[in-house]
Amino acid sequence: MKRSVIALTLASVMTAGMMTAGMAHAVDSAGKTRVEMGANETNLLHPDQNRYTYKHMSEFLHTKQIDSGDVKDSIVLPYAKKQLGLEFTFSHQGKTLELGEMLNKHRADAFVVLKDGEIVMEEYFDGQTYRTQHQMMSVTKSFTGILGATLVAEGKLDRDALVSKYIPELADSAFGDATVGQVLDMTNNLKYSEHYEDPNAEVFQHAKTVGLTPMEEGYQGPKTIHDFLKGLSKDGDRPHGQEFHYLTANTDVIGWLISTVEGKPYSDVLEERIWSKIGAERGAYIMSDAASVGLASGGLNGMARDMAKFGQMLADGGKNLRGEQLIHPDAIKSTEQGGNPAKFAKGGYSYDGAVLEGWSYKNQFWHSMNENKAYTALGIFGQWIYVDPTANVVVVRQASQVESLNDPNDAEMLSAINAIIKALD
User: Fold this and answer.
1) What residue ranges are annotated as transmembrane (predicted)?
2) pTM
3) Could you confirm whether 138 is annotated as catalytic?
């Protein structure tokens, strides 16, 4: 990913000092208590505490519960006859790497691989178990995106309509004359800095609305997600729709659109349309602001197995493992087609040697544009849900990496995924 533009997504906001301090001595959390880890509301994202906090975010922030539905509706994933182990090796840049060593280096907490809806690999680390609810960071965006794409497919949202048609409160903001599709695919013009060395960057105000960054004494800025979004402006006079820029605020506008047209909170729509229908074995939860608005851009926490069921639902054309259609087929088709690689490149994300060279962005997913139409949900600090609908393979990783973004790690992960898919063919 392009560090200079993406910098950190909302959930990664921290000071440069915190980042630097943790580089050399990241701490594991297995068997340790919150007190022993020294974890509190001020260091949630610090590398010395994040192996604990990412598994226990509900202890520190306001959250909204996402119910899994009736226990009889849960689905226990079967195990495939063919199993892969941590000793699996793959080639990366001319070197042979072992999967287990890579996952250890990346500080993985969970790694689950499905083939045709069956588990071919399931590993947990640092005290995590299959029941652990782990922070998914910006993987949340893809849940929001597929819900938005479904409402478009159902005719409840018009991709070509202005955002202000649905949300008049945003008429005077940067989003007022942007279309739903432009915001959904992040090609709108928006002044939103995620440059964390700048204390005036918009990302810090965004973070304050959900408690990821404390409001200083006498703070007079926006205190809710919606108030924050209403105050955002454009970055110059560049027309909307020309180039892709990954900016977290866009996703919370999509969350607002979803709640508006459905007439209920975004978190309720997520629960009713996805989480209670995919056969989840445990509920999830999402971070929220003081007005109880769920963070649609990076607040979801849930089990790795259940994240895999979401990925499998996408791979199966929007159907759960019982064959029930949850997501409109046109939303799946739109996502599988990917976005515009030229707009992706124009924003600076695709260049010779880039990890995501030749990729695109569509419906809040990163699309490989390969022959298998594979695409992935990505979250900082190592969160992945990779979907290959052609090979019918899903790969989920939950992690607590030291760095929010790490291009070499992402490159290794993609090499590992490609080798796994080939081995399961």
Assistant:
1) none
2) 0.94
3) yes
